[in-house]
Amino acid sequence: MNHSKKYSSDCGLNKVQKMVGGKWKLSLLWYISEETRRFGEIKRVFPDITQSMLTKQLRELESDGLLHREIYKEVPPRVEYSLTKLGQQFVPILHSMSEWGECNLE
User: From CA 49, how far away is CA 2, in angstroms rounded?
Assistant: First the structure.
């Protein structure tokens, strides 16, 4: 495996940053990684995010293949979010980042 530290705009790190970059994405992935979550439940846990920004961040995570959005044809409509297989593969990285933050950021 090549671990060259030369910069490249298409390197793996830049690809990951494009997928999870954003103020809310890591926290959303962390929260949804515990279990399938409904939109309203997510909104209550993250009161500082506007509904439009929450929708945007969730749609981007879905578009990048990290989240699955299930829409139930009910009245009122019910929408649930869960991690895809790709999103589940990212969970150990989230755990490592969380542990590093707990140990180093006080």
Answer: 39
